[in-house]
Amino acid sequence: MSSGVSRRALPGFGLGLGYAVVYLGLLVLIPLAACLVKAASLGPEEFLAAAWTPRARAAYALTFGVALIAALVNVVLGTIVGWTLVRYEFPGRRLLDALVDVPLALPTAVAGLVYASLYVKTGWLGQFLEPIGIRAAYSRLGIVLVLVFTGFPFVVRTIQPVLADIDVEFEEAGAVLGASRWQTFRRVILPMLIPPALTGFALAFARGLGEYGSVIFISSNKIFETEIAPMLVLVRLEEYSYAEAAAIATVLLGFSFVLLAAINYLERRSKRYGS
Amino acid sequence: MWKRLLMWLVVGYLVAAGAWVIASGFGRKEQLLNVACDPTRELWHDMNAAFAAQYEREHGMKLLIRQSHGGSGSQARAVIDGLPADVVTLALWTDTDAVRKAGLLEADWENRYPNRSLPYVSTIVFVVRKGNPKNIRDWADLTRPDVEIITPNPKTSGNGKWSFLAMWGSVVWRGGTADAARAFVTAAYRRVPVLDAAARGATMTFAQKRIGDVHLTWENEAHLEVKEADGELEIVHPGALSVLAEPHVAVVDANVRRKGTASVADAYVRFLYTEEAQELIAKNFHRPTNAAVFARHQALFPPMDLRRATTLVPSGKWDDVQKTFFAEGAVFDQIQIAGRK
User: Fold this and answer.
1) Residue A117: closest CA among chain B residues belongs to which residue?
2) Closest Cα partner for A183 from A194, A170, A197, A198?
3) CB pairs under 8 A between A and B
4) Which residue in the set B155, B193, B208 is minimally distant from A117, CB to CB?
5) Under an 8 A CB cutoff, do A216 and B340 touch?
6) Looking at the record's lineage, which domain of life comes first (chain B) (predicted)?
7) What is the pLDDT of residues A54-98, one digit of tens each?
8) Whole-angstrom Cα distance, residue B216 to residue B139?
9) Which fold has domain B124-243+308-339?
């Protein structure tokens, strides 16, 4: 406390905030602004013509659709895995716990390639799935599968610490008051799990929107069918249409921002409700 | 005490780092950066070693040639955005010309070196499964209902563009109308189960995942693919007719002027036309433009009627090839939409 009158208990607030603002500006805001500026070089009509064609709309719908489905699947799977890892003692638990982070470390293109070769009709899994009419490689289902893979760690890692923090006394209190196991779970544990599940959902969803490397290897990249919006951006870039590419990126950015803000709002509300 | 020590450590670190930077600046050897498209990785690896050896013999100076590889279009964009390439060796005329449009090349870049700046050419051929079980011999076989085709997306891949042009040309060069060509490519792309974004992706789809009956690809890629596959695949030269793929070379004028590498870069490109380099080119399965070397490798390159892609548009200009076939809403987009019904 050399300056004497600081009312904060921790020193270094000024420096910390300064760093945060500078780095966020350099790393996030300036690149995003550059994208918007590029897109703004188009007139409103040109912008619409570039970013709101039937083909682009199909690509947005697909991108958001598969990201949402994958994030939902991840909430269910991630909660189960998180629960298992926190609540039970079993041999190999540490190893399993470490495996959860693998999707973050693996280059996503590798994931796409591996999934594709597993699920094609001659692949280990595809040879059983194709005969019963399930096409997992080069289809929308395939895209969902790789997005589940790449988004998986987010839900597990947001749920785990919350589960670990829940005291057994809450459950014991529930049991003493005559609640069944299921009632205790639904009334006591579930409300506490909703905020981290929402955070995990938002993270997995955001990851799915931006995912490119894995998807192009398992998607057949056919327009109106399996063409994701990031692929469309690349197509425009290959035509040296920088502004048109930025326009599509801007629309993606806008949608994502609105959706993420909505999830954030829900999460805050549920936190207030839970406590 | 600790503060002092820490300060000296920081000062020492900065001095050492600075000295390192200066030392590496003085002791610098000559450097060139060749920004190239994907399927030429092996070729440039051999070529750069050969030229560096020759350069050291003649000038007594070590020369380091670095290579950068990626999709042709994204490589062009990297150079436009400031990647300091001395030489660009891209798959498509339009990609090299995009670098000119950005003000980095002189207007006459195509006429700067012999044979329209083409030390070698290539073409699009078929790769099929061993023994050619579906008996795919000519372009017309591509639209048969029992044939599945693997070819990358022409919108994002140079290889894909050349394959498209070869398919279109196979009709037009034999006297067919543009309407017939359109009907043919529409039917052919209906036979494509996966439109990979780039050439090597398509190779993996065909060779490793065993999807499709025929893979349309550069002749040199086809040779590598067959070699890798250990007798599982073979090459077909479709009807002895295909497109003349023209991977131009160009010295990036603005960059070499700034870096002072103009004469080295020029010597590098001229070296590509020497007999030694032409042999390396043949060894890497590109068609050498030196007639004597080409004749020596007849076995690798069966005679084919190779036509220039610019003959597909009335004006004979690449800009119009791009505009007619690959621009937004042009022929490829139209047939893709038609093909999904």
Assistant:
1) B209
2) A170
3) 62
4) B208
5) no
6) Bacteria
7) 999 999 999 999 999 999 999 999 999 999 999 899 999 999 999
8) 10
9) D-Maltodextrin-Binding Protein; domain 2 (3.40.190)
